[in-house]
Amino acid sequence: MQKVKIGIIGCGNISGIYLENLTRTFDNTEVFAVSDISEERMKTAAETYGVPNQWTAEQILSSEEIEIVLNLTTPGDHFRICKLALEHGKHVYVEKPLSLLPEQGRQLVELAREKGLLLGGAPDTFLGAGLQTCRKLIDDGYIGDPVAATAFMMSHGHESWHPNPAFYYQAGGGPMFDMGPYYITALVSLLGPVQMVAGMTGKALQQRTITSQPLFGEKIDVQVPTHAAGTLRFCSGAIGTMITSFDVWSSTLPHIEIYGTQGTLLVPDPNNFGGPILLRPAGGSEFKEIPLLHQYAENTRGIGVADLAHCVRSGGTPRAGGELTNHVLEIMHAFHSSSDSGAYAELTTTCEQPRPLKTGLIKGYLE
Ligand SMILES: NC(=O)c1ccc[n+]([C@@H]2O[C@H](COP(=O)([O-])OP(=O)(O)OC[C@H]3O[C@@H](n4cnc5c(N)ncnc54)[C@H](O)[C@@H]3O)[C@@H](O)[C@H]2O)c1
């Protein structure tokens, strides 16, 4: 089958792993053009991964050959570029979060539907071996009916390593919008959609100092909450407890745990693709490590794009699809709006639990 041609807009920090997997791991994708306002970054990306075209964003959008626009810009540009790409008749996959505002996410989902185009977005770590094995264990009844979950992302922010970290403290950043997508997408993939959220948010520091190079010593004004805690009621009835924070130096809390009527499952870091997974059945004396049952335990960022490309050729709904990423966007906002209003936030969006991947796939294939 003819490979699906992809145009990447944004050749920054995260682009390398997408380029790696979309040019070398998956058989159904071809990176046909890259674009960046930094010529140097664009050139490095093209030369490192053998991409034939270095184009402006406008050239990518108006190219007859590009079928999927992969938007790897920073959050403030996600909505504008995704909307333009859909208006130009392109399928779209975007890094997280889908957009800054829930209304923008909704607009993109509607625009894609109206135009008969596919929309998808990061994260796709839930398609990795770790979270897919957890999904299979839950679906196969190893912990009975899930009744509750906890999810904790505790850190002190990204200014110690990211070369240009200011965006993490602007709209679309903060721990919830930056890291929440991994945790919430994992929870929705394991437990289904969310009905309502109660949240509280805070901000420990008004200003942060960059300690990474090349901007060492520069100050960042913190414009968003840097600690978000709350409770989620899933449509299934299960109750989740979650904290995402950039205000914590260290913590021993686990990434994600799922509690069922028949046991407890320790879920691996949802920012990664592998394990370890630990399971302790009701009455069991200890947690035991469960072997990974699926393909893609290594960093396979871009698998969501390859899955969307598969749907471009063969039909179907992408697993890391627009409705899922839009639901996750609304949930993240719900922590903040509930905190601001002092009331539960009822969600207006929902999504299907994404279809699991099969066990025993050959590397590079999705079906
Ligand atoms: N850095 C990470 O480890 C990481 C991990 C997962 C997800 N993400 C997400 O990926 C996205 C990008 O993050 P990043 O760390 O790569 O940021 P970055 O700042 O390193 O890269 C963004 C790139 O987009 C380019 N760009 C912006 N507007 C453009 C336009 N109109 N046309 C062409 N190029 C344009 C910039 O010049 C820059 O090179 C963010 O949404 C982030 O949340 C990042």
From TrEMBL:
Top-rank lineage group of the source organism: Bacteria
InterPro entries listed in its UniProt record: Gfo/Idh/MocA-like_OxRdtase_N (IPR000683), Gfo/Idh/MocA_oxidrdct_glycsds (IPR050463), GFO_IDH_MocA-like_dom (IPR055170), NAD(P)-bd_dom_sf (IPR036291)
Record-annotated Gfo/Idh/MocA-like oxidoreductase N-terminal domain positions: 4-119
Keyword annotations of the record: Oxidoreductase
Residue stretches in coiled coil: none
Keyword Oxidoreductase: yes
Residues annotated as domain GFO/IDH/MocA-like oxidoreductase: 132-265
Keyword Magnesium on entry: no
Entries under Pfam families matching the protein: GFO_IDH_MocA, GFO_IDH_MocA_C3
Protein name (database record): Dehydrogenase
Source organism per UniProt: Saccharibacillus kuerlensis
